[in-house]
Design brief:
Elements (H helix, E strand, L loop, with lengths): L9 E3 L2 E3 L4 E2 L15 H12 L4 E8 L12 E2 L6 H9 L5 E4 L7
Parallel strand pairs: 3-4, 4-5, 4-6
Antiparallel strand pairs: 1-2
Bound molecules: flavin mononucleotide (FMN).
């Protein structure tokens, strides 16, 4: 087998990933106009998790609306009011890491 460890678990800090398949961050620009998590965000990421991907990195997420947003409808996480939606997004997957971005793609 070319990648003998691909389907074996991996310890990442306190999290055990079920395999080493990673979904790179891809902003699908489908959040609400104010940056709130949308149902489309939930369905998109949940479906990737259901496919068996071990680790999903969510795309561009602005930590400060005042300094910019890489796409008009990317996620926003610059206030406590966004926490419930982001928590719901996290719960819809098995693992999550949110990339922060102010003016472009960044981690
Ligand atoms: C449609 C699209 C959206 C992307 N959105 C993000 C993003 O939000 N954040 C980020 O860090 N990278 C983003 N990227 C970059 C990808 O995560 C990845 O680094 C890039 O596609 C190169 O992958 P590769 O090294 O496997 O060829 C995006 C790429 C594409 C094609």
């Amino acid at each position: 087998m070319a990648f003998p460890h691909l389907f074996s678990p991996l310890q990442l800090g306190s999290i055990e990933l079920p395999n080493r398949i990673v979904h790179v961050p891809t902003d699908i620009s489908s959040s609400h106009a104010d940056g709130e998590v949308s149902e489309r965000d939930i369905h998109h990421h949940r479906d990737i998790a259901r496919g068996g991907t071990g680790f999903i990195i969510v795309g561009a997420t602005t930590p400060d609306m005042a300094t910019g947003r890489p796409t008009v409808t990317c996620l926003v996480a610059d206030g406590d009011n966004y926490v419930p939606g982001l928590a719901r997004l996290a719960e819809s997957m098995s693992a999550i890491y949110v990339t922060g971005s102010t003016s472009g793609y960044a981690t």
